[in-house]
Amino acid sequence: MSLAQGDDASSTNENQRSDDGLQQPSELSQAQLLHLQARQRRKIAQLEEQLETLESGRAAKERQTNYYVAQGRGIRRVVALFDSIEDLVTENDRRYEDDEDRATIDQERLHIGYDTLMRTLPWLLKTATDMEHDEYIRMLKMLRQGADGARGDDTSKLKTLVADWVNREFKPNPLVDHDDKHTRGFVNDACGKLLCPAELDWNSPVTKAGIRDRSEGYIVTDLSFPAFLYEKYTANLDNLEEGLFRGKILVQGYKAIFTSPSSAKNVEGDGDGADVIENNRRVRKAGWGIKVKKHVAQIIKMEKVTPRSIAYVACQIRFALSSLTSWRTVDGDFDYIQFWRSIVDFFERPPGREARRRVDRLLEWWTRKVFGRSRREDLSAAARSNMSVNALQRQRVQLDDASFDSN
């Protein structure tokens, strides 16, 4: 064999030897390529699966977050404007752990709030029981976010609406500015009239000056009910319960928040002619799949006006009439927390049976006023039988029987 032939053979042998000394280069490259492609496909599939899992988990978490936030929107409105869920739960736990039956007024109020919370969010107790602590804290955060967001939305809504209502009814000069709250409060004659303590006469120049100067005897605190809470914005000093919580702007505010701003245009009469809830049900049925926006009362399944919802609206109206530019619990000498509690206690802690009956009648009036609920279902059989349609039917039968007997 020549040297050239030896070199060729050596080169051929090397070319035929793979990294492991077994396969030819062409065969090795093809196998490696196929192997690499297969590995890449598996890796891509694995990554896509992981991404899908992450996206699915993220979507589920977002849905859960949105659910908690939406559910929380009713808490400030109907449960507790200032107390936290933690405070309500703590008071309920204390009652199970404490053998003493005695409870302070504040503790009773918290416990009623806890019961109201459980009725408003019936799923909450079981869900919270099954959760890990971190999940529970996160849920409370989302509920609180929804609650505070709803309160803020209502505040913004009433800022404009209250200006419209005051301008339309009192026609002040200058008009109440929709945006600038510095022109409201006691510096504005119309707003001052509505904010004036019920026991004082805003029409008196001495009263106006005293309130604006915060003089002795004219300091406005939460110990006085403002005039806007009263029917015709005037209190009977010999009977301060007369007309209380029947103020027109209070009812307008309630309807704007819980039913719709448009429904607040009609607050005259007792509201017996229109059943808001039933009308909405009929609209949804007749809509043939057309999406109809639900109002707040429908979302939280509220069919009756409640004491705490009245207290909530009273605080919102008071804030809208004031010159405060941002939500806070204290306005000068006026404490919103105590104001809310005073209204809640009026309804939830009547001093006797007669007072309880008056409160019940007032809440019935509110329910008719807001939801237009008629009292048809309350009619007794005797009352129904004496109504003209049934009475006419009996008369016709009697006339027919009498005619038959005479023949």
Summarize the structure in short.
The chain has 407 residues and is mostly helical. Helices cover 62% and strands 1% of the residues.
Spatial sequence of strands, sheet with the most strands:
1-2
* Average residue-wise pLDDT: 86
Low-confidence stretches: 1-6, 9-22
Largest sheet: 2 strands, antiparallel
Q: Classify the beta-strand content into a percent band.
A: under 5%
Structural class: mainly alpha
Give an account of the 3D structure:
It contains 17 helices and two strands. Mean pLDDT is 86; it is low at 1-6 and 9-22. The protein has helices at residues 3-16, 25-72, 75-79, 85-97, 105-120, 124-129, 133-170, 189-195, 205-213, 248-258, 276-286, 296-299, 307-321, 336-348, 353-371, 381-385, 388-406; strands spanning 330-331, 334-335. The longest helix has 48 residues, at 25-72. Strand 1 (330-331) and strand 2 (334-335) form a beta hairpin. With 407 residues, the chain is an all-alpha fold.
Keywords:
single chain; 407 residues; mainly alpha; two-stranded antiparallel sheet; 17 helices; 2 strands; 1% strand; disordered N terminus
